[in-house]
């Protein structure tokens, strides 16, 4: 067996069904095997960053590592942004790259001066980065890669395989590859924990992205219902880390760099926080400092340095631990809900939505279209069978603020790393992971210009997603920042008017151009009913700042990172 055979066999053993990749000389031996091995489908991406984003999103949605395959040097480094984003998003991903030979000259093809430079590039943005030195070490490395990326806090790993290692024959007769177990213990729930939860007057649940990475939003909501506890989730500018049905009577909203007033009130007025899937030691955990007077009970897949307010840490598999907690709680008489507290939160939630609604209503017939008006149409167009994928920009902030997901996992966004160019490759992976869902991507013209090398991928594979381009010929979000900070002076925010509809037509896709409310509505319905990928090019206005900037509570320290102590 050659290196390529071992890699493909190992991928099959760990259950991989898709590889997002782009070939070249340093990884050609894998492609030789993929020619005949049909149980793994290779999706040819046209830029490695898009391949990496697709693998990240596949991992986020399925809990199984997304696989990205690149050549050495430029192929691998083109993937850096995507891998870093997967790390920030705790997304399981295995990046396999070809690599320069074991003992190269300086400046070899696709290399620089150090034979281990890729290992070093990927070390700070992965859970594990390794250069495999012998063909017999490939299988153990990939098995360990699987285990590392899926255990505890999930994340990306990078395995680089020098071309001479990949192209050599294994001399050992049996290549032992077996999928490692992912079993994680159930967290221990003691009587005191139960007692505290049942006797607190205003407990709330604060949930972070590990809930989503372990696909246990349903269990989380059940826990909220058993405790009559409002749910707040960690959120980002680009969207929330966890998505539950917006109208759920216990869902208050998000806290983070921007906090929804209802969620903020819930946090401040609560007397006990049950935090679930929050990573200790990072900004996500900062709201735990507000846990007063009874402190915080914390459940996650790993421990860490906690603020003094956290007085109980339970480490275990999130789903199993929540289930065990629900079972214990149900064996006691239910706690009495604090109806005044719950009503207050829901009233603030209602009023906030109403304010956003009023602003949109005023602009319903403005031209070019207000991004919020477009976002509102989505509320009546998308449903429980849809996943909305956001990019990063002013227009998608509007969608974030206006769209009310009717279901769990109904919205996907880049997360804290916040890279533009997410929505297109993410929508490709979303449709591959959930072929039965309708997938709708909302992206700015700037975001699409960063990723549009993979528009042909939609057509080639007939991936029937909808790509809605909010085309304002601007880096709208940066224009808004400059308007506020530079007193109406602007630089580097104008974009050439690009006719994306014609570009997509030229690639062989179906396009619709829309400029009015009615045209957009008709276009959305038509596109969502199509069996082909459809791009909708919508002329939009960049002059309306997202409501979040005024209505939501801003915390600069959490938004950008630590500024002051
Ligand atoms: C890779 C990357 N580069 C730069 C930025 C900074 N940035 C954030 S939003 C934005 C403008 C986005 O423009 P567009 O996609 O057209 O959306 P709009 O704001 O116009 O709606 C920029 C440049 C970023 N987030 N990611
Ligand atoms: Mg724009």
Give an overview of the whole structure.
The chain folds into three domains: 3-166, Rossmann fold (3-Layer(aba) Sandwich); 191-341, Rossmann fold, CATH 3.40.50.1220; 364-543, 3-Layer(aba) Sandwich (Rossmann fold). Helices cover 40% and strands 18% of the residues. The protein contains 24 helices and 21 strands. Strands 7, 8, 9, 10, 12, 13 and 14 form a seven-stranded mixed β-sheet that branches. Helix 3 crosses helix 17 (423-433). The radius of gyration is 24 Å and the shape is globular. The N and C termini lie far apart (57 Å). The mean pLDDT is 95. It binds thiamine diphosphate and magnesium ion. Magnesium ion (MG) binds next to helix 18.
> What Rg is obtained from the alpha carbons, in whole angstroms?
24 Å
- The number of helices is 24
CATH architecture of the largest domain: 3-Layer(aba) Sandwich
CATH superfamily of the largest domain: Thiamin diphosphate (ThDP)-binding fold, Pyr/PP domains
Bound molecules: thiamine diphosphate, magnesium ion
Estimate the mean pLDDT confidence: 95
Question: Structural class of the secondary elements?
Answer: alpha/beta
Q: Report the β-strand fraction as a percent range.
A: 15-25%
Task: Report the major sheet.
Answer: 7 strands, mixed
- Label the overall shape: globular
Q: What distance separates the N and C termini?
A: 57 Å
CATH topology of the largest domain: Rossmann fold
Helix content, binned percent: 25-40%
CATH class of the largest domain: Alpha Beta
Low-confidence runs of at least 5 consecutive residues? none
How many distinct domains?
Answer: 3
Strand tally is: 21
């Amino acid at each position: 067996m050659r290196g390529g055979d071992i890699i493909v066999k190992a991928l099959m053993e760990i259950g991989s069904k898709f590889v997002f990749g782009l070939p070249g000389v340093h990884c050609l031996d894998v492609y030789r095997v993929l020619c005949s091995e049909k149980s793994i489908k290779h999706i040819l991406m046209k830029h490695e960053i898009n391949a990496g984003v697709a693998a990240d999103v596949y991992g986020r949605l399925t809990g199984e590592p997304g696989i990205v395959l690149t050549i050495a040097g430029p192929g691998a480094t083109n993937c850096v942004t995507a891998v870093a984003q997967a790390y920030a998003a705790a997304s399981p991903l295995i990046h396999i790259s070809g690599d320069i030979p074991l003992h190269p000259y300086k400046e070899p093809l696709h290399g620089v001066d150090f034979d281990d430079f890729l290992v070093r590039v990927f070390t700070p943005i992965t859970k594990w980065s390794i250069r495999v030195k012998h063909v017999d070490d490939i299988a153990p490395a990939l098995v360990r890669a699987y285990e590392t990326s899926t255990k505890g806090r999930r994340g990306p790993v990078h395995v680089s395989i020098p071309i001479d290692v990949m192209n050599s024959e294994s001399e050992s007769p049996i290549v032992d590859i077996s999928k490692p177990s992912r079993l994680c213990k159930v967290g221990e729930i003691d009587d005191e924990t139960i007692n505290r939860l049942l006797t607190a007057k205003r407990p709330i649940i604060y949930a972070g992205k590990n809930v989503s990475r372990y696909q246990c939003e349903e269990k989380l909501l059940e826990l909220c219902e058993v405790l009559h506890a409002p749910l707040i989730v960690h959120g980002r500018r680009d969207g929330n880390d966890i998505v539950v049905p917006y109208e759920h009577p216990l869902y208050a909203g998000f806290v983070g760099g921007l906090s929804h007033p209802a969620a903020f009130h819930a946090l401040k007025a609560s007397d006990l926080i049950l935090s679930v899937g929050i990573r200790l030691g990072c900004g996500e955990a900062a709201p735990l400092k507000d846990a007063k007077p009874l402190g915080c009970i914390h459940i996650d897949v790993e421990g860490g340095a906690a603020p003094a307010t956290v007085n109980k840490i339970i480490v275990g598999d999130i789903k199993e631990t929540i289930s065990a907690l629900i079972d214990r709680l149900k064996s006691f008489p239910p706690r009495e809900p604090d109806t005044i507290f719950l009503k207050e939160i829901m009233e603030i939630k209602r009023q906030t939505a109403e304010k956003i609604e009023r602003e949109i209503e005023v602009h319903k017939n403005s031209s070019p279209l207000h991004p919020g008006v477009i976002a509102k149409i989505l509320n009546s167009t998308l449903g429980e069978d849809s996943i909305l994928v956001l990019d990063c920009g002013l227009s998608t902030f509007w969608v974030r603020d206006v769209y009310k997901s009717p279901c769990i996992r109904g919205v996907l966004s880049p997360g804290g790393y916040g890279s533009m160019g997410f929505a297109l490759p993410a929508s490709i992976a979303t449709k591959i992971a959930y072929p039965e869902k309708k997938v709708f991507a909302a992206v700015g013209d700037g975001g699409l210009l960063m990723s549009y090398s993979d528009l042909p991928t939609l057509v080639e594979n007939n991936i029937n997603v909808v790509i809605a381009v909010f085309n304002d010929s601007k880096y709208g979000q940066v224009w808004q920042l400059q308007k506020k900070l530079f007193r109406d002076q602007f630089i580097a925010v104008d974009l050439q008017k690009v006719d994306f509809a014609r570009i997509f037509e030229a690639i062989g896709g179906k396009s619709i151009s829309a400029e009015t409310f009615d045209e957009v509505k008709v276009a959305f319905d038509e596109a969502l009913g199509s069996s082909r990928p459809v791009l909708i090019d919508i002329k939009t206005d960049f002059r309306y700042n997202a409501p979040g900037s005024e209505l939501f509570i801003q915390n600069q320290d959490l938004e950008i990172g630590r500024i002051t102590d």
